[in-house]
Amino acid sequence: MTFQYAYEKFINTYSTVEQTDISFMIWLIENPKSPFHLHGSASLKDHDAIHVLLECGQSNDEEAFVIGFTMGTDDRIKPWEVKLFKFISHFLYPKKNRFTKAQIEIFNNGFKYGSSRSNNRIGEVDWTEYNLDIPLKEIQLEFGIMDNELSYFKRDIK
Fold first, then answer.
1. Number of structural domains, the chain?
2. For the whole model, what pTM was predicted?
3. Among 22, 110, 125, 144, whose Cα sits 20 to 30 Å from the Cα of 72?
4. Domain-embedded: residue 37
């Protein structure tokens, strides 16, 4: 399956959200256009591409992993930003998006995996520079994502 096909399938399968449907608190810290965004933020389109790259759906478990991975790839991230994100996502996000303690651990796994990759700032990748009509596995390899490692770090996702 090509990355492009997987991306289109993701967009058609899941109810992707419009920018206007995102709560202010989530927009404030996760959107790169927010003056208060944390390092490792990504636009919605880029965020969806990262979901595909990591073979994740849209459950809160998978969301925690994707955000953790994205933040982990940003070499500018500071420990206080990680702590702040965990606090806000656990206590201040809207109920349906709020991370449980177990999901914070999944976030931690994603962060560890992201920070172990050699590619920095995946949230800022210009996806138009990639040939997306090649197999998803080849794109994953370009980003240093190995099946066995990905499975290990995603082990707690339900």
1. 1
2. 0.95
3. 22
4. yes
